[in-house]
Design brief:
The chain is built from five helices and 17 strands. The chain has helices at 4-18, 26-48, 181-211, 344-347, 356-374; strands at residues 58-59, 74-80, 87-92, 98-104, 116-121, 132-137, 146-152, 163-168, 222-223, 231-239, 244-251, 257-263, 278-280, 291-297, 306-308, 314-322, 335-340. Helix 1 (4-18) runs antiparallel to helix 2 (26-48). The longest helix has 31 residues, at 181-211. It is globular and about 70 Å long. It comes from Actinoplanes campanulatus.
Length: 376
Amino acid sequence: MLTTPFAEAIQEAERVITTAPHVRDEQDLVEGYDYLAGSIRASVQMAWAYQRDFPYFVRSTGPYTKMGLDNPDTLYFHAWLRDDAEYLVTGQRGSTVDLSFQILDGAYSPITVPGSTAAFDDREIRTEPDGSFRLFFGPGLPGAGMLVVREVFSDWAGERPGMLRIQRADRIGAAPPPPTLDALTKRYGVAGKILISRLRTFLAFAERFYLNLPVNTLTPPRSTPGGLTTQFSSAGHYELDDDQAMVITVPASDAPYQGIQLGSMWYVSLDYVNHQTSLTRDQARIDPDGMIRYVVSERNPGVANWLERLGHRRGYVQLRWQRLSRELTGEDGPRVDIMAVDDLPKQLPHYRPVGPEAWRERIAARQAATAARMLG
């Protein structure tokens, strides 16, 4: 049957999920199967979007197609490229805090992180007064395989996405050939390979870059592995009891974008729509001393900057800074303290409680802003 290779890949993918080293209980498995469903959907989409002669931008991740510790503040798009062809990208700049472009010279694998043939943000392109822009890529970018675009929000409710389009310059006005049985057979096979690679790659990626770090610590800011030259990040993993809190103290940066998020052991974001599992600088409460103090805990500590664990005793933490004009140092980065949740009122400087009604309003605002953004 045409779909047999893909069906076999799904069975193999289920084995990857059930044998993942971090699986300890039913919650881990349930989340793994949910991750598998999103990965199946994304793999089929990627295989069918493999159009290098008639490319188009595809939403790389979303609430139901998560991967690679996806940033809740970012809309990710990608399109496939040939390194011997010229491409025209046209767009309309939205009001988001950052818009960046990156050309990858390969794909992520369990042992490699792709390099960047080019990486820059919209400060380096000409934008017309009406917000429109035109960019040409290639030819002459050896190894170029994929164009990745990131549109980053700091104020979820106040910023609006723009518009993007990509065309191969010498194919404008032409049409692709109709699909054939041979082409569809190949696509189902490719979808299966993408699925297995996707799952294995990011489990290995997390172990390589996070789990070898001491638990309940965060690294100093560093250039993000496989990321943009204008992005720095601080990474770590936590393991906390239900009566414990991780307090992360970091200066409010002058970088246009600063954010923090939690991730599960599947190396994907937690539910950021209905729970506060991430915060941008605009969303966070900044203390009078210019510091942001995040509290990671299972129990509600009653503070504005609570990051909800959602039952995850173990997980990942990542801070990001984008659109930088200088390299960050350790002094720009976080300090971590572990303490009892009950001790927070006397241990946190500038402690100000947040009541249940105010918290409900924060969540309602997240839900509304996410719905508006995902329609953009």
